[in-house]
Write a structure and sequence with these properties.
Elements (H helix, E strand, L loop, with lengths): L7 H12 L8 H14 L5 H10 L4 H10 L10 H20 L6 E6 L6 H14 L6 E8 L2 H9 L1 E2 L1 H4 L5 H7 E4 L2 E4 L1 H4 L2 E5 L12 E6 L8 H12 L2 E9 L12 E6 L2 E6 L8
Parallel strand pairs: 1-2, 1-7, 2-6, 7-8
Antiparallel strand pairs: 3-5, 4-5, 8-10, 9-10
Helix pairs in contact: 2-4, 3-4, 5-6
């Protein structure tokens, strides 16, 4: 189905209103590729009809299907190895050392703020088990959120096909952390028990999430305008513990959008921490 020039404003504005994703000129192919089948199965002869039907749908089902379609992201296990090297060699050891001074069961709280189908959060769980041995010696809370209901459901189920398993996982890690069954490869129960997933729109209030030691929010803000980007990073900074760290995409930077966070570097990884005295109350 072709996206007509006369439909641009209606379609792009609606997508922005439900996801904060800004589609620039020349992105017609993205709408056509991701929403054409949905329009046809919904009985719509045009994208304009699809949007008008979604707005009129009080159940919100069609809106959520549009979100699922437009936010389908590229993801894989241990994507861009530098953030995981950062966790392994610096952030986790320092966190455990700091927490162990005041707790017999040190808390480790990590949030994957755009978890897609779960590979990032499960990669973190795999890394932690490899580093820490018995995870029950720690109070681990790994939380994944995503705008897409479909992505969250898949992440929560923890099943992956052979192609997905071949992207970022060695044979050894696959054997250690997954079991094979008729549905594909399933994350082992002891790792699944460390995680929780829920739907969340990052442009809405998320103070109920609590505080975290480490927040991953990679390759999300690249789709936002400058105002929404600044708002997101400022609110994420408020979810960090005083010594917490924010990890964003390798091609992203905060610029001047969040002055309470300062850039740090370890090996090839860049991460952000609250400036001294800038920790904020819940």
């Amino acid at each position: 189905m072709k996206l007509l020039a006369s439909e641009h404003a209606l379609v792009f504005d609606y997508i922005y209103s439900i996801s904060a994703i800004v589609l620039e000129a020349g992105k017609d192919y993205l709408v056509e590729g991701r929403l054409s089948a949905l329009a046809e199965t919904s009985g719509c002869a045009s994208f304009e009809e699809l949007i008008r039907k979604a707005k009129a749908d009080a159940s919100g089902v069609l809106k959520r299907k549009i979100i699922d379609g437009i936010t389908t992201g590229e993801t894989l296990f241990f994507r861009d190895t530098s953030p995981f090297d950062l966790l392994r060699h610096k952030l986790i050891p320092e966190l455990i050392d700091r927490q162990a001074r005041s707790s017999l069961k040190p808390p480790i709280r990590i949030w994957s703020a755009a978890c897609s189908t779960g590979q990032e959060l499960y990669s973190i769980a795999i890394l932690l088990r490899g580093m820490l041995g018995d995870p029950h010696r720690y109070n681990i809370r790994l939380t994944g959120t995503d705008l897409s209901d479909e992505a969250v459901a898949r992440a929560s189920a923890g099943y992956y096909n052979s192609i997905e398993m071949g992207r970022g996982l060695s044979d050894v890690l696959r054997a250690q952390n997954f079991t094979a069954d008729t549905k594909g490869w399933k994350i082992r129960d002891e790792l699944r028990a460390l995680t929780s997933f829920r739907r969340l729109n990052l442009m809405e209030d998320f103070t109920s999430m609590g505080k975290f030691d480490i927040i991953f929010c990679r390759n999300v803000a690249i789709y936002f305008n400058e105002k929404d980007k600044a708002s997101l990073f400022q609110r994420l900074s408020q979810r960090l513990e005083p010594h917490g760290s924010l990890i964003i995409g390798s091609m992203e930077n905060l610029g001047t959008s969040c002055p309470q966070l300062e850039s740090n570097r370890h090996l090839r990884a860049v991460y952000y921490k609250l400036l001294q005295g800038k920790a904020q109350a819940a």
